[in-house]
C-alpha cells in the first residue's frame, strides 16, 4: 500500500476541521445594492411580485433570479428611480402567455432602468415607458413565439413622451409594428441592438436629438423608419442620426394591422425618412432590401391629406458614406407603394437606385432642391416624380449632389 503524501493528509484534515461545505449558499442577489432591494428567486409567485412592485418606494431595486416567471397581468412601475433586473437575458424570462391585459412591463416614473431579462408573449407591447425623465433599457429581450402573427403585440420596446432615453444591447422579434420604437421623445440613443422578424426594426417618430447606431437590423419588413406624423402631441421631428448600422435583408412580408401607417411600408425597405427634418444617414451597410435601400418621402405619399399646422415634407436630409448593394431588386407588390416602385423598376429596366426621393416638392420653396435633400457621390439617385399622375421619374441628380453640416452627437447625462 502506497503511503499517503503528508501534504494531502494535512489538507484533508484542515478541510474537515474547518467544516468544508460542498454546497455553498448562493450569492445574495441584492449584495452591493445600497437602495431598498427585493430579490425574487425562481418560484416566486406573481402575487408576491406584484405586491412588492406596487408598494415600491422611490429608488427601489428588484432582482429576478434565473428561471421563468409567469404573469397574468402587466407589471406596472409608478415610483421614481426603480431598477428591475434579471440574471441575464437568456436566464430570466417573464412569460406573459396567459396575460389578460396589455403591456408586459409598464413604467411611468422617472429614472427607470430595466435590464438583463427577457419578456415573452405579451398580449400587447413588451415594455412601455410613458413620460419618464431618464430611461435605460439594457440587455432586454422581447419576443413573441405564437405562430399566428396577428396575435403578437404592437411594440417590443416602447418609450414615449420621455427624455434621456437609452436602449442598448437588446433583442426584439415578432412585433406587429416596431421592435424598438421611441416616440415623442427627446435626447435618445438606440445602440448595439438586434431586431429581426418585426414589421419595423427601429423607429424614431415625432422625436428629436436621436442617435441610432451599431444595430443589426435584419429580416424585418423595414430596417429603420424616421417618421413625423400628424395628430400627436409632439410634432416636428428633427436631428436624427442613423449611422454604423447593418441593415440587411429586411424583406419580411408586412403583417401590421390594416389602417396603421406602418401597414403601408413595403417589405424590403432599408431606411425610410418621412416628413422629418435634419436627418443624417451615414456609415451604414445597407444590403439585400428588395424594395429600396433609402427612401426620402413626404406624408403626401400616404394618400392622406395633411391637417392644418403639420409640415408634411422632409427637409435637410443628408445621405453619405454608406455601403449600399443588392437593393431594389424586387419591390413588394403586396403594398400600393411597393407596386408603384415595381412599375418604376420595370420602366428603368434595372434595379432601383440606392436613394430615392418621392419628388413631391414643397410648394412654398424655390429652386431645384427646395428641401435640401443631399446625397453624396457613390450612391445612385432617382426622383420618383410622384407629384404627377402618373409618376414621372427623373434621374437628374445635379441639384442633389450636395452636403450638409454634420449633426451633433447626442450626449446623455
TrEMBL record:
Residues 109-251 form the Right handed beta helix domain. InterPro entries: Beta_helix, PbH1, Pectin_lyas_fold, Pectin_lyase_fold/virulence, SO_2930-like_dom. It comes from Anaeromyxobacter dehalogenans (strain ATCC BAA-258 / DSM 21875 / 2CP-1). PROSITE patterns: PROKAR_LIPOPROTEIN (PS51257). This is Parallel beta-helix repeat protein.
Amino acid at each position: 500500500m502506497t503511503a499517503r503524501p503528508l501534504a494531502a493528509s494535512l489538507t484533508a484534515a484542515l478541510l474537515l476541521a474547518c467544516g468544508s461545505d460542498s454546497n455553498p449558499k448562493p450569492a445574495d442577489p441584492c449584495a452591493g445594492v445600497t437602495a431598498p432591494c427585493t430579490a425574487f428567486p425562481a418560484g416566486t409567485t406573481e402575487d408576491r411580485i406584484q405586491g412588492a412592485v406596487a408598494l415600491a418606494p422611490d429608488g427601489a431595486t428588484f432582482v429576478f433570479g434565473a428561471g421563468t416567471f409567469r404573469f397574468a397581468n402587466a407589471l406596472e412601475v409608478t415610483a421614481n428611480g426603480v431598477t428591475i433586473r434579471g440574471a441575464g437575458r437568456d436566464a430570466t424570462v417573464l412569460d406573459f402567455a396567459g396575460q389578460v391585459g396589455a403591456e408586459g412591463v409598464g413604467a411611468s416614473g422617472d429614472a427607470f432602468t430595466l435590464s438583463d431579462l427577457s419578456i415573452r408573449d405579451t398580449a400587447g407591447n413588451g415594455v412601455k415607458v410613458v413620460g419618464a425623465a431618464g430611461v435605460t433599457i439594457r440587455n432586454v429581450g422581447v419576443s413573441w413565439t405564437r405562430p399566428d402573427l396577428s396575435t403578437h403585440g404592437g411594440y417590443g420596446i416602447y418609450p414615449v413622451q420621455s427624455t434621456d432615453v437609452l436602449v442598448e444591447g437588446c433583442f426584439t422579434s415578432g412585433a406587429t409594428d416596431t421592435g424598438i420604437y421611441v416616440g415623442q421623445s427627446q435626447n435618445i440613443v438606440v445602440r448595439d441592438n438586434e431586431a429581426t422578424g418585426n414589421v419595423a426594426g427601429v423607429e424614431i417618430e415625432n422625436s428629436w436629438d436621436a442617435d441610432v447606431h451599431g444595430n443589426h437590423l435584419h429580416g424585418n419588413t423595414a430596417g429603420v423608419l424616421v417618421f413625423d406624423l400628424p395628430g400627436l402631441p409632439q410634432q416636428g421631428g428633427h436631428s436624427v442620426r442613423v449611422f454604423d448600422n447593418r441593415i440587411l435583408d429586411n424583406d419580411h412580408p408586412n403583417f401590421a394591422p390594416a389602417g396603421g401607417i406602418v401597414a403601408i411600408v413595403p417589405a424590403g425597405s432599408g431606411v425610410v425618412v418621412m416628413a422629418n427634418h435634419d436627418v443624417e444617414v451615414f456609415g451604414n451597410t445597407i444590403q439585400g432590401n428588395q424594395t429600396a435601400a433609402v427612401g426620402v418621402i413626404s406624408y403626401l405619399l400616404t394618400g392622406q391629406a395633411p391637417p392644418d399646422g403639420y409640415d408634411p415634407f422632409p427637409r435637410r436630409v443628408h445621405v453619405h458614406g454608406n455601403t449600399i448593394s443588392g437593393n431594389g431588386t424586387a419591390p413588394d407588390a403586396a403594398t400600393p407603394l411597393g407596386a408603384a416602385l415595381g412599375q418604376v423598376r420595370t420602366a428603368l429596366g434595372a434595379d432601383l437606385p440606392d436613394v430615392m426621393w418621392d419628388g413631391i416638392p414643397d410648394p412654398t420653396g424655390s429652386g431645384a432642391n427646395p428641401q435640401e435633400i443631399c446625397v453624396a457621390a457613390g450612391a445612385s439617385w432617382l426622383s420618383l416624380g410622384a407629384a404627377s399622375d402618373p409618376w414621372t421619374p427623373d434621374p437628374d441628380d445635379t441639384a442633389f449632389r450636395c452636403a450638409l453640416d454634420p449633426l451633433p452627437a447626442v450626449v446623455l447625462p
